[in-house]
Write a structure and sequence with these properties.
By secondary structure, the protein is mainly alpha-helical. The chain has a domain of 39 residues. The protein has two helices and no strands. The radius of gyration is 18 Å and the shape is elongated.
C-alpha cells in the first residue's frame, strides 16, 4: 500500500507541475489508454495460459 501511495503522490505531483490544459489532459488520456492496453494484453496472456495454449513447438 505504501508503494501505491508513493506512485500516486509522484503522479499527482507530476501533473500539478504541468501548466498547459491540453498537455495535461493528453497525458492523462495516454496514461489511461496505456493502462487499458496493458490490461488487455494481460487478460489475453492469462487466457492463453489457462486454456493450455502451446507457445512453442520445439
Amino acid at each position: 500500500m505504501k508503494t501505491f501511495l508513493l506512485f500516486k503522490e509522484i503522479y499527482t505531483e507530476a501533473f500539478r507541475s504541468i501548466q498547459s490544459y491540453i498537455v495535461k489532459h493528453y497525458f492523462k488520456a495516454f496514461a489511461f489508454f496505456t493502462l487499458v492496453m496493458f490490461a488487455i494484453v494481460l487478460y489475453a496472456f492469462l487466457y492463453r495460459v489457462s486454456t493450455g495454449f502451446v507457445f512453442s513447438n520445439i
